[in-house]
Design a protein that fits this description.
Largest sheet of chain A: 11 strands, mixed
Largest sheet of chain B: 3 strands, antiparallel
Number of strands of chain B: 3
Helix content of chain B: 55-70%
Strand content of chain B: 5-15%
Number of helices of chain B: 4
Structural class of chain B: alpha+beta
Largest interface: A-B, 28 and 24 residues
Shape of chain B: globular
Distance between the termini of chain B: 31 Å
Oligomer: heterodimer
Structural class of chain A: alpha+beta
Order of helices and strands of chain B: HEHHEEH
Strand order of the largest sheet of chain B: 1-3-2
Chain lengths: ~900, ~110
């Protein structure tokens, strides 16, 4: 213990009195030399010779000092401090060089951190609840199902919540959005619908008031709402009086019972639930959604906590035993036996649920992993580039290193110092990189938010991200520090001091191979970028069977048919409007309606067989869906005329084997009621459920004939306008507002809705393109650096060539030739590598093979052009060498 | 005369022994070591000074600057209490080692 205290004290003393200690060591050694030489002089040696012998005997003053320093406690700390100061002086001496390196690395590290931030936010962050690691997600699979589904029905969640021997708590939740406020001042607020045990299962305590309980989740109970901490601050200025106030949700008063704790915004990662209500309140808030509470709808995601002492496998086993006993009442009674049986034999799967749930995960996991791989390659290229630059500079520092080696520094000390320089550079870059990541990850989330839903992710750097970036930076620093360090200390000092050029022969092989590696890697990235850009292009040029440009959409609440007709008539008189119609659904809106429909005479099946769309007159003209035969719906199709339908090719192909369906009868069930429809038209297929999905079998029915079905209909108006969409949108809104003074009217563009389905592809094309270009730029900087370095080193040789009669053009061709050789080798390695890598992303491509010749050729041409451009400047410099000056040089 | 290499780990013991009699400076220690070993050992200053510094930092030695016999300022090392204990331990161990080795050699 005392020894330890002594050591600690000596480290501290050393740190505090470093200069004094150094001075004393020097004094002590000088005294030694004086005493030793005095003795020799007494023995008769001349004074000068005595001193020389004494120093020789000592073994060199600096060498002894260095050995004493390494024995001293705290020496390592001291060395590091000295190396850091030395490195900073080196950086300051050559700021341009330092900035290029730090920027190159900052882009590489920043891109890595940005993508990792997104991966972290989407997949790795725990929910801000106590013991999130104990939360589990419950999945469900009917016996005839292929995979476990993440959604369960309300009755099943309630039944599971009663299994107290297995679960400490079971909570179902689903995201929603409510129109909140009084008429004229209505705002759409993101919300969640949850079962009664939600907050208890999560283990949350209210900021103020109380959270929802089981008693709130009872049909007929007064509607209770919990608001988020953020909503409380924004809307109620964090006033305690908010509790007890009534919110008008979809026109219905709901009492705010409490505020959820700060930081918690729901279990659906990527969306924020500002208002949370119990499932049982849904029929009052949204009458049309009442059926969700039934046993036939699977829409709640389920998170649970196990009872203490129950393991996951134990819980799964017990559920297998319990389920047959409790399942009978919670399975839809009106289902046929063929569908009930697999439900009775269903299985449950419990998996980790502490990171919440989000549809984004399924959608973006693969793209993000692909992007992570791409940025890792970008960083690899940046590292290779920095290694090249450092190696080139190492030759300039060869002399400095040789001097230090010869006056007593050990090789290890110098390697340590060079590694510290490298790590320092990469840590500097990491700091800048975190800034780059902070900005670009927000850009990424905005990019994703152009999709069907706004995405809100917590991107504040946490220890995952800082740790990740720190590790990446240190690994990077060692990666590009080691080679130059080993290189520059390997040569014998005597050779280096003579400035012998032969010693750099091994380096001259290493540098070109580093550049070749950069070329090969950037080719891989460019091919990837090309594939994603071409995929997006193919999707954008793809004919989905309708034309979205020039079409405006307006979503309305349920309206009487007569009023709708008036609204449409008003709109048709607006300047610039070409045609207008109404429908229940629009292509690619994300929601569909399906019903069973078959040719008359066949029994109506239990399961839905076709997508249904209620469409008004001029619908097909407005959407420009080609009518192949028969007629469109008109104003004369009304509840009082014969029920008619228009089918698409896919439906006709399936049920009329491609024969003309006009005049044939359909038996269908619409909203649970049997209907007979006469087919009056045939239209082309549309990719209405996704550009990459096959066109569904579709039956269109007249909008006006939907009255009498017992479900409410939310109409969307479609308006095709010529000229500026902005002006048309303004005029349409004004026309609508006149007849609907209290409604919020949001006129949006159909193209936005179509583009929203391409958000993943657009993200991949944008980012892969950006990373590909970044890689090319960095690789070209590497190539430029190498050529500039070799031209500078070979000035004399070039001078001799010119003196012997070489022309400028020949010199330029010579330098360009060596660049082309490097690039060709790089391409030779890169093309097979790209071919291997691109098979990994094959499923993400559209109407494209991974070996797409255009993408590969484009990448090769772009890379070669950029390389020639980078090589041109050093070539130019080589050609302008003055033979006289060059020969006199050295 | 050829010098012997100082066996690994014995320099500490010899330094402590020399300093147990009287405080000395670095040069004095090296001279004394040569004299006491009858010139069989010649300590290299490159090993001596790191060893002195380590012992000083571990609190076995204490150093002070004072005038030398011919009025030069020199750094004199002397043993601390901890140093004396260390010396006893080392010495005891060394005696056991030599006894053991001698026994082996003579028994053979």
């Amino acid at each position: 213990m005392t020894t330890f205290m002594h050591r600690l004290a000596s480290v501290l003393r050393w740190l505090l009195q470093r200069n004094r200690a150094e001075q004393q060591l020097d004094d002590e050694l000088q005294t030694f030399i004086e005493m030793s030489s005095a003795k020799k002089m007494r023995d008769g040696v001349p004074a000068a010779e005595a001193r020389r012998l004494a120093i020789l005997e000592l073994g060199g003053i600096e060498q002894v000092k260095e050995r004493v320093r390494t024995y001293r406690h705290g020496a390592l700390l001291d060395d590091v401090g000295r190396d850091v100061r030395y490195a900073i002086r080196m950086f300051a001496r050559d700021p341009g060089f330092t900035v290029v390196i730090v920027l190159t690395l900052a882009l590489g590290i920043g891109a890595n951190t940005a993508i990792f931030t997104l991966i972290d936010a989407l997949m790795l962050r725990w929910l801000p609840v106590p013991n999130p690691q104990h939360l589990i997600q419950v999945k469900f699979r009917p016996a005839d199902g292929i995979e476990f589904a993440e959604s369960l029905s309300y009755p099943i969640v309630r039944a599971l919540a009663d299994q107290h021997e297995i679960f400490a708590g079971v909570a179902g939740f689903s995201s929603n959005a409510f129109d909140v406020g009084s008429p004229g001042n209505v705002k759409r607020v993101p919300a969640a619908v949850v079962t009664g045990e939600y907050y208890e299962t999560l283990g949350l305590n209210p900021a103020i008031g109380r959270l929802l309980t089981r008693d709130d989740d009872v049909r007929g109970a007064p509607v209770a709402a919990v608001i988020s901490y953020g909503y409380w601050q924004r809307q109620f200025a964090a006033s305690p009086a908010a509790v007890g106030q009534a919110l008008l949700i979809n026109g219905l008063p709901a009492v705010i019972v409490g505020v959820s704790p700060g930081g918690f915004v729901g279990t659906d990662v990527g969306s924020v639930a500002d208002i949370t209500v119990p499932v049982a309140a849904l029929p009052q808030i949204k009458p049309d959604a009442a059926s969700l509470l039934g046993s036939g709808n699977f829409w709640l995601r389920v998170i649970a906590r196990l009872q203490t002492g129950v393991s996951v496998s134990e819980a799964e086993t017990r559920l297998r035993v319990v389920w047959p006993l409790i399942s009978e009442p919670v399975i839809a009674p009106h289902w046929p036996a063929s569908r009930r049986k697999p439900m009775l034999n269903a299985a449950f799967q419990l998996s980790r649920g502490g990171t919440g749930w989000t549809y984004l995960r399924e959608m973006y996991t693969r793209p993000l992993l692909v992007l992570m791989a791409m940025v890792a390659v970008v960083l690899l290229i940046a590292c290779a580039n920095v290694t090249t630059l450092l190696l080139a500079r190492a030759s300039a520092r060869q002399r400095e290193v040789a001097v230090r080696l010869s006056i007593g520094a050990s090789r290890g000390r110098i390697i340590q110092q060079l590694l510290i320089e490298g790590t320092l550079l990469s840590l500097l870059a990491a700091v800048c990189g975190i800034g780059v990541a902070w900005l670009s990850s927000r850009f990424l989330v905005n990019l994703i938010s152009t999709g069907p839903a706004r995405v809100v992710l917590d991107l504040t750097p946490n220890w995952h991200i800082l740790g990740f970036t720190g590790l990446v930076a240190i690994a990077t620093g060692i990666f590009f520090g080691v080679t130059p360090a080993l290189q520059s200390t390997s040569a014998a000092p005597s050779l280096a001091l003579r400035e012998d050029n032969r010693i750099s022969s091994s380096r001259s092989r290493l540098l070109p191979s580093l550049v070749t590696a950069q070329v090969a890697l950037s080719l891989v990235l460019l091919v990837g970028a090309g594939l994603f850009v071409r995929t997006l292009q193919n999707l954008q040029n793809f004919d989905p069977g309708f034309r979205s440009d020039g079409v405006l959409l307006v979503d309305l609440g349920p309206q009487p048919t007569a009023l709708l007709q008036q609204l449409l008539n008003d709109i048709r008189t607006v300047r610039g409007v070409v045609s207008a119609s109404v429908s229940t659904h629009t292509p690619l809106s994300g929601s569909i309606w399906s019903e069973p429909a078959v040719p008359a005479g066949q029994p109506i099946p239990e399961r839905d067989t076709a997508v249904f769309v209620g469409a008004g007159s001029h619908f097909f003209a407005t959407m420009q869906i080609p009518l192949l035969s028969g007629r469109e719906f008109t104003e004369y199709d009304s509840p009082n005329t014969a029920a008619v339908a228009i089918v698409n090719e896919q439906f006709a192909h399936q049920y009329f084997s491609g024969q003309n369906p006009l005049g044939r009868q359909l038996s269908a069930k619409i909203g649970g009621r049997k209907r007979d429809l006469e087919v009056v038209g045939l239209v082309k297929n549309t990719n209405a459920v996704g550009l990459r999905k096959a066109p569904p079998r579709t039956v269109y029915v007249p909008y006006a004939q939907l009255t009498g079905t017992d479900f409410p209909v939310y109409p969307t108006l479609e308006i095709r306008a010529a000229g500026s969409p902005g002006q048309a949108a303004f005029a349409v809104r004004r026309a609508l507002q006149r007849r609907l003074p209290s409604a919020t009217i949001d006129v949006r563009q159909f193209t936005t809705q179509v583009n929203a389905t391409l958000v993943k592809e657009r993200m991949m094309a944008t980012l892969a393109g950006a990373f590909g270009l970044l890689a090319v730029v960095v690789a070209c900087i590497g190539l430029y650096g190498l050529l500039a370095y070799s031209v500078a080193r070979r000035t004399k040789e070039i001078g001799i060539r010119m003196a012997l009669g070489a022309q400028r053009n020949q010199i330029i061709a010579h330098v360009l030739g060596s660049a082309i050789r490097l690039v060709l080798i790089g391409i030779g390695i890169g093309v097979p590598a790209a071919w291997l890598a691109s098979r990994w992303v094959e499923s993400m491509l559209f109407e494209l093979k991974p070996t797409d010749p255009a993408a590969i050729a484009g990448a090769m041409v772009l890379l070669t052009t950029a390389a020639l451009l980078a090589a041109y400047f050093p070539a130019q410099r080589a050609a302008s060498v003055d033979p006289l000056v060059a020969l006199r040089h050295e | 005369m050829d010098k012997l290499d100082i066996p690994q780990g014995t320099l500490d013991l010899m330094i402590l022994t020399i300093l147990a009699r009287e405080p000395l400076h670095g040069y004095g220690i090296s001279q004394k070591l040569a004299a006491l070993s009858q010139d069989h050992f010649q300590v290299n200053p490159g090993s001596l000074f790191p060893c002195l510094y380590r012992l000083e930092q571990d609190g076995k030695l204490k150093a002070e600057w004072r005038p030398s016999e011919n009025n030069r300022r020199a750094k004199y090392y002397r043993l601390t209490q901890a140093g004396k204990r260390q010396l006893e331990q080392h010495r005891e161990r060394w005696e056991r080692i030599t006894f053991a080795i001698t026994s082996v050699l003579e028994g053979a």
